[in-house]
Here is the input.
Amino acid sequence: MALALGTAAIVLLALLSELTRPRAVERFARARLRWRTRSRGTEQIGYDPGRERRAEQRARALLRSCVNDEEWSMYRDLGFLRVWGGSDRRAGGHAATGASLDLVGEAENAEPSPAADRITTDAGAGEASYAYLIYPHKPIVAYLPQTGVLLSEYCVAFPDLTRPYGSARLPDSDDVLAKWMALTADERRLIADANMHLPGRQIDPDRIRRDLLRLARWERERLYHDGRGASGADSLRAA
Amino acid sequence: MKLLRLKPGHGEIVLAEGDVEVPEQERELVEAFRRELDAGMWAAVPTETHAGRREAELVKSFAEVPRDAERVIFFPRAAGGAPRTAASGR
Here is the structure.
């Protein structure tokens, strides 16, 4: 009797499992698909503004720790960095002059930068007759600080092909830092790796001229405040 | 010394950290350094000249990193699409 009941129970269980198995398999497959879609979504599609903002904050802190106070203030206040040309003296000279100067039209009526007379002291015995403007995720612009003449645009990017979070783009300040490091370390190499174009290809020349005016004004104000600070300190010392 | 890497969507991440005077830690730093270079990264050391001017130095091996450097920053190599010449292939 017991044997018969046990056998019947086993048969019943086998039948029930056969009946429910397709549904269970289907549910499991659906759950797996949902889980995969969700994880792919966060990796490739999901744009998280909070994450991007935190990344940018970290990038700004790192940039600030690498460049000097004047450069940091310039980037913070104006949104771009100026780097004097000819810093790559280890590689043996200038990269941006030469061919670029042939492409220049007549001199434009831009206001010379107050820092233009400091070029010789900053970059060495009268060598840096040109400078670069570094914008985040835009070409590097070469120009003549004394006249404001735009020389050329150097299109260069630093794509991270591993594409973490689905994007190859560095945060803005990291892009500026990468350009600054590459330019100050090996100007010639960076310029050789870049695509050179006439001014205006990607950045509106009027915008650059406006930025040069803003830079000149910013430097004047900075010199004025520094001078006032210095004279204040002198008078305090004299007192 | 810290090895940092610039990363999209994150900012910098610390790849390795250690004292170059401790052989085991130095070995770890060297391994991490090689991994990044093999992955095609550029390595730069932020420096300051005697005149107080800030700049960076690109390094191609761990031996080129100054022993007193506080950090080495790795970032993706520049891509501009310009044809490479012998001079630029350094």
User: Anything to note?
Assistant: Residues 143 and 151 of chain A are 5 Å apart (CA to CA).
